[in-house]
Amino acid sequence: MTVAAESAASLVQSVDWLAIAPPTIAAVAGLVVLVADLFLGDARKALLGWISVAGLAAAALALLPLLDEDRSTFCLTGGGTHACSYTADRFTLVIQLLVLGGALLAALLSLSTLKDSAKELPAGEYWFLLLSSAAGAALLPASRDLATLIVALEVASLPAFALVGLRYGDKRSSEAALKFFLSSVTATAVSLMGVSFVYAATGTLHLTEIAAELDDVDGQLHTLAQTGVALTLVGFAFKVAAVPFHFWVPDTYVGAPLPVAAYLSVVGKAVGFTGLILVTVVAFPSYADVWGPALAVLAALTMTAGNVAALRQRTTRAYSAVRLLAWSSVGQAGYLLVPIAAAGYADEPADAERAVGSTVAYALMYAAVNLGAFAVAALVGRTQRMNRVSDYRGLYARSPLAALVLGFFLLCLAGLPPGIIGLFAKVTVFSAAVDAGLGWLAVVMAVNVVIALFYYLQWTALLFRAPEGEPVRHRVPAPLTAAIALTAVLGVALSGAPQLVLRFADTGLF
C-alpha cells in the first residue's frame, strides 16, 4: 500500500457515538428548539424551555454509560502515531457533569425569567443560544488537539455574547455584550496566534504530541515555541477572568439577564479553567518553568483585585448584589488558579495531576453554591428590580427558607461552618500551594480569605435583620423553587460528605 493510501486509510474510521453523546444531545436539542420556534405560537413558547431542560437532562444522563472505561474517537493511527482529538476520560466526564449540570440549573432559572420578560427576551433565540453554548462547553473538556479546543471555546463563547445583549431596548445589556465581545475576540486572536506559533514549532496540534515535540524543539525555534506558549495562555487567562483581563466581568454580569450571569459565572469559568488545564498540564509540561510562576502571580493578583473590589462595593450608592457576586467570582477565580500554578512546580506528573484535582474539586463546590446564590438573587429580583444588597435586609421575615439557604451559600463561599465543603475546598487549595513550595502564595490566599469574610458575613447578617417595612410574601415559581432546592441539597450533601469531590485532590483525574 502506498504512503498516500495509508494516510487516506487512517482518516477512515468509525465514530464512537456513545463517547460524543453528551455534547451531541445538547446540540441536537438546540436545533430542535430553533425549528420548533418557527411553528409554535406565542402562547406555547413556554414549551421551548421545557424541551431545553429535557435536552440538558438527557445530555447529563448520557454520561452514565461512559463511567466504565475511557473512550476516544477521531484518532490518527497512521505514521506510527496514535493521537485522538476527542477523549472521554474521568477528567472529561467530571467537567461535562459540571457544565451540563450548571447549564441545567441556569435553564431552570431562565424559565421564570422568560415568563416575566416575554416582551424583552425572545424565547426561541434565547434557548437556542443557551443550548449551543452548553454544547460547546461540553465539547471542550474532551478536546485533545488545539484546533478542536479553540473551536469548542468559540462555540461556547459566541452564543454567550448574544445572550448577554439579547434583551430588547436595554442599553446596559447592549453595552455589556459589546464589551464582552470585543474583549473576547481580542483574546481569541491572541490565542490563535499562539496556537499557530506552537504548530510552527512542533508540526502538530494534538496535545500529547505537542508535549513530546516541545521537549526536543530545535534551538532556532525555541523562542517561537516560548512565544506561542505565552500567547496561548493569555487567551485562556481572559476566559477565566484573571487580572488584568477581568475588567469585562462586573458590567457583563450586571447587564446580562440574571440567569445568563449565573451561567457565565459557573459554566463560562469552567470552560476557561478546563482549557487552561489542558494546555498547561497536558500540552506544555516542559514549559512549566514559564507558566508556573506566571500563573502564581496571576492567581495572587486576581484574588486580591476581586476581593478588594468586592469589599469596596459597599461604599457605593447602588450596592448591587449581582455586581458583588461578579467581583466575588473574580476573587474565586484567583483561588482556582492556585493549584494549576502549583502543578507547574510539581516534580512528578502524578503530583501535577493531584494539584489539578484540587482545582476541579474547588470548581465543583463553587458551581453548586454560586448557582444557588444566583437563584436566590433571582428570587429577590422578582420584586426588587435594582437587586441591591440592601434589598436583602429582612429576607428571613419574607422568605425564611430562602434566607437560610442564601446564608448557607455565602458561608460556603467564605469557607466557614456550616459550609464545610467551602472550608475543606479552601484548605485543599491552600495545601496545594504549600506542597508546591509556594508559601508566599499561600499567605496571599489567607489574607484574601480574611478580606472576603467581611463582605460575605456582612451580607449574611443583613438577611436576618429586622425589615424596614412590613414584609410582603410572594409566590415563587416552581422552576425557581426547584433550582434553589437542588443547589441547597447539593451544598448540604457536599458539606456532609466532602470526600465526594475532595478525593480528586488525592487521586488526580487524568
From TrEMBL:
Membrane association type: Multi-pass membrane protein
Keyword Nuclease: no
Keyword annotations: Cell membrane, Membrane, NAD, Quinone, Translocase, Transmembrane, Transmembrane helix, Transport
Highest taxon of the lineage: Bacteria
Keyword Transmembrane helix tagged: yes
Segments passing through the bilayer: 20-40, 47-67, 93-114, 126-143, 149-168, 180-201, 221-248, 260-284, 290-312, 324-345, 360-380, 401-425, 437-457, 478-501
Enzyme class: translocase
Pfam families associated with the record: Proton_antipo_M
Catalytic activity: a quinone + NADH + 5 H(+)(in) = a quinol + NAD(+) + 4 H(+)(out)
Location(s) in or outside the cell: Cell membrane; Endomembrane system; Membrane
UniProt EC number: 7.1.1.-
Domain NADH:quinone oxidoreductase/Mrp antiporter transmembrane intervals: 143-451
Main location group: membrane
Family indicated by similarity: Belongs to the complex I subunit 2 family.
Assembly information from the UniProt record: NDH-1 is composed of 14 different subunits. Subunits NuoA, H, J, K, L, M, N constitute the membrane sector of the complex.
Function description: NDH-1 shuttles electrons from NADH, via FMN and iron-sulfur (Fe-S) centers, to quinones in the respiratory chain. The immediate electron acceptor for the enzyme in this species is believed to be a menaquinone. Couples the redox reaction to proton translocation (for every two electrons transferred, four hydrogen ions are translocated across the cytoplasmic membrane), and thus conserves the redox energy in a proton gradient.
Protein name: NADH-quinone oxidoreductase subunit N
Species, as recorded: Streptomyces alfalfae
Gene name linked to the record: nuoN
